[in-house]
# Entry
Amino acid sequence: IDEEMGNQLVGTILYLDSIDNQKDMYLYINSMGGDVVPTLAIYDTMSFCKSDVGTVGFGGVMAMGGFLLACGAKVRVKATKCLVTSMKRESVSGIHTPPNVGKLASGSALKKPPSQSALPIK
# Structure
């Protein structure tokens, strides 16, 4: 997703919404990610228009492409079977997992090692 494609998608979504805002639109996504600003512009346009914008993921949908996939109309988000079985959940939702997320979930990263000052002084 780059500036040019983002501008084209925003213009197309707004045009189709102005012609008939009673029909649903579908955005077919096969993207390995892209720039943040054009992706957020597409998201804002999807939220702004009166038509429901459904999203369909096929192929590889990662990073900002996964963000757009997750932001589709609630009952209209679809992903092909090969996408769901071949990708991790955090990739589909567009969330990059930090390296310590597993440790944070278990609480082990939050535990501080005993410090020398905590020992009794003789």
